[in-house]
Amino acid sequence: MSEETLPPQHQDHRPGREYKMDPEPIYFRESYRPAGKLTGKVALITGADSGIGRSVAIHFAKEGALVVMVYLEEHADAEETRRQVEACGSEMLYFAGDVIDDYLCQRVVDETIRKWGKIDILVNNAAEQHPQKQFEDITAEQWEHTFRTNILGMFQLTQKVLPHLKEGASIINTTSVTAYKGNPMLIDYSSTKGAIVGFTRSLSINLAARGIRVNGVAPGPIWTPLIPSTFTEEQVASFGSNTPMGRPGQPAEVAPAYVYLASEDSSYMSGQVLHVNGGSVING
């Protein structure tokens, strides 16, 4: 990674803040043409305050969905997501809290059902990562916390949403290119993303007879607040340069994959992972 793709920058606070990024990510492109693909659907999205989650929320709202946002504690970013979703003519419920909190997961589901009476789409997107140069530097506490956030939270929320999903519903899990290529500095993170691939494939088979589809998206290097809050200034400056396209992707380049998997356009697809990664062929 030697070519500069972004201005050098770093944020000390994790998760990062979107409004501190230079340049700010692109969440929606005017070339996108909504077609009412999700009209009347209720979509629950974790990690929706910024990054890929925000872009998915905006695209879903543009397609006519009602949006439920779950985020950790980035209130300013979440408020901007709410503003943009409501500017699309949609409505939003939003909840601050950690997806590893079983009580929070239940409250999100209960209040969504109380307000709108159903859930049609679940996007499990919340995640964290903590780079370490040496494997020995990964503590048991870090390993456990990464797994609790990235896969246990997904398990808990999915279990609580599932009783309310009807035939035709869609579950979409965010995995990563690191699940297929690995990453020497993100061993615990990559391991959780591999677990998400297995979870997606196995759950899709389990739910097939109920008419509920389960798929995943495996983004490559995407410009989100997680990046400057995770990596050094030098690493950020060359972020995405090792892809065939030679640059990082934007959230707006990933979100349409979620629209496809949430809509009837993908009615014969389950157990699959879409790879939006700048051209890397990973054969997974």
TrEMBL record:
Entry-linked SUPFAM superfamilies: NAD(P)-binding Rossmann-fold domains (SSF51735)
Organism field: Halopseudomonas xinjiangensis
Keyword entries, A-Z: Oxidoreductase
Oxidoreductase keyword on record: yes
Family: Belongs to the short-chain dehydrogenases/reductases (SDR) family.
CDD domains, alphabetized: SDR_c1
GO molecular function terms listed in the Swiss-Prot or TrEMBL record: oxidoreductase activity, acting on CH-OH group of donors
Listed Basic and acidic residues bias regions: 10-20
Region (Disordered): 1-20
Annotated protein name in UniProt: NAD(P)-dependent dehydrogenase, short-chain alcohol dehydrogenase family
